[in-house]
Write a structure and sequence with these properties.
elongated, alpha+beta, single chain
């Protein structure tokens, strides 16, 4: 999976390329207006550039969504770490601390394995989910 930094670089590169395409459109239009470029050639070139620009724009939207999600996740992890530090020295787990740190506790069906009663317990923490 690409890093956040590489995604941001790719986004900037695509934005730069789209600006280049816009500048090229202007140049091609000027050449067409001067009669240097035929209508057919102008349409063929601009069609290809429009497709590239559209593909770039779609990829930029994908990247923006990924970056947003990653930054949100990083913020949740930071918040969780701050909460853990805040409650690191507690001596008693009371309702307020429990509600602040834990989203839910999932308790599985009791089973007997090799004569020993076992039961799966899963804890889903606020901000970071199940660890």
């Amino acid at each position: 999976m690409p890093t956040l930094t590489s995604l941001k670089r790719e986004y900037e590169s695509l934005a730069g390329r789209n600006q280049e395409i816009d500048d090229t459109f202007i140049s091609l239009y000027a050449d067409k207006a001067k009669g240097i470029l035929t209508e057919k050639r102008f349409l063929k070139l601009t069609d290809a550039m429009e497709r590239e620009q559209e593909n770039n724009q779609n990829r930029m939207q994908e990247i923006a969504a990924i970056i947003s999600e990653e930054e949100h996740s990083e913020g949740d992890v930071r918040t969780f770490m701050e909460e853990i530090k805040r409650y690191a020295a507690i001596t008693e787990l009371d309702e307020a601390v429990l509600n602040r740190l834990i989203n839910r506790i999932l308790i599985g069906k009791p089973e007997k394995i090799d004569g020993v009663r076992t039961q799966e317990v899963r804890i889903v923490y606020n901000f970071v989910g199940e660890l």
